[in-house]
Write a structure and sequence with these properties.
- This protein is mainly alpha-helical.
- 92% of the residues lie in helices and 0% in strands.
- It is built from two helices and no strands.
Length: 84
């Protein structure tokens, strides 16, 4: 009789634990998705900034290859200053 009571208590505790874990997972699932969405949007911002900086660096390098005229020197000087 004593072993049967212990096994019933253990089974009830397992069911209660399982139910509690499912309830918590459902409750905090929304927060996890919000965090993932926010992380993806932050990554998009970082990627866009990186592409922008890469484009400006490429333009800076292309204009610095041939510095013949005063106009190119002025363009080179203004290109890195306008990025900030």
């Amino acid at each position: 009789m004593k072993k049967r009571n212990i096994s019933i208590v253990v089974a009830l505790l397992m069911v209660a634990s399982f139910t509690y874990n499912i309830i918590l997972q459902q409750k905090y699932n929304h927060y996890t998705r919000q965090d993932q969405d926010r992380n993806y949007s932050d990554l998009r911002i970082i990627a866009d900034n990186g592409k922008n900086l890469a484009g400006r660096l490429e333009g800076f390098i292309n204009t610095s290859e041939v510095i013949d005229s005063e106009r190119r020197k002025t363009n080179l000087d203004s290109s890195w200053r306008s990025s900030w």
